[in-house]
Write a structure and sequence with these properties.
By secondary structure, the protein is mainly alpha-helical. Helices cover 69% and strands 0% of the residues. Helix 1 packs antiparallel against helix 2 and helix 6 crosses helix 8.
C-alpha cells in the first residue's frame, strides 16, 4: 500500500534555498553559529505553518530527556571533574589513538555520545595535538553510537518511533 505524503511546497522550496545559502556561507568561511541562527530565524519568520500545528508535532518527552541529559552532564562536570580528577585521568596516555578511542567508546555507551564528548572536553586543554584528539573523539563517539541502543540519542529516537509502530528493538 502506497501512502501519499502531504507537504507544503513553499516550505520545501524555502527550506532548500536557505540550506543552499547556508552551505555556501559555511564554505565561504562565515561563523557556523551565526549562519545557523540567521538561517533558522529566516525560516521561522517566513513560515506558513501555524505555530500550534508545529507544537503538536514536538516530541515533548524527548525534549525533556535532552534537558535532563544535559543537566546530568553539567552535574557530572561540576561534581566529578575537579582539577584532581582531571590530573589523575591525564596520566592515562590520551595521545594514544587506541586508548582515547576505547575511553570515548566506553563513555559514549555509558552516557551517550554527545554527553561523552562534553565530558571529555577538559582533558584536551593541554593536549600536545588537540586537533588530532578531537578528530579521534569525533570518530570514536560516532562509531560508538552504533554499539548499543543507548550509545546515541538518535538510536533511542528510532527505537521509540519503532515501538509506536509495533516494532520492538532491543540491545
Amino acid at each position: 500500500m502506497i501512502k501519499l505524503v502531504r507537504y507544503h511546497r513553499s516550505l520545501v522550496v524555502t527550506s532548500v534555498l536557505v540550506t543552499i545559502v547556508m552551505m555556501i556561507l559555511f564554505f565561504a568561511g562565515q561563523p557556523v553559529a551565526k549562519v545557523a541562527i540567521v538561517g533558522g530565524a529566516f525560516l521561522l519568520l517566513t513560515r506558513s505553518v501555524k505555530a500550534d500545528k508545529v507544537y503538536r508535532e514536538i516530541d515533548w518527552p524527548l525534549l525533556l530527556m535532552f534537558v535532563g541529559l544535559f543537566i546530568v552532564v553539567t552535574g557530572l562536570e561540576t561534581a566529578v571533574l575537579k582539577p584532581e580528577t582531571i590530573a589523575a585521568v591525564s596520566r592515562v596516555d590520551l595521545t594514544s589513538v587506541p586508548v582515547l578511542s576505547a575511553i570515548t567508546a566506553g563513555l559514549s555507551n555509558l552516557v551517550s555520545n554527545v554527553p561523552a564528548v562534553l565530558l571529555l572536553k577538559p582533558f584536551f586543554a593541554n593536549s600536545p595535538d588537540p586537533q588530532r584528539a578531537w578528530l579521534v573523539v569525533a570518530m570514536s563517539s560516532t562509531l560508538a553510537g552504533n554499539f548499543t541502543l543507548v550509545g546515541s540519542v538518535a538510536n533511542l529516537i528510532v527505537a521509540q518511533r519503532a515501538r509506536a509502530e509495533g516494532v520492538i528493538l532491543g540491545f
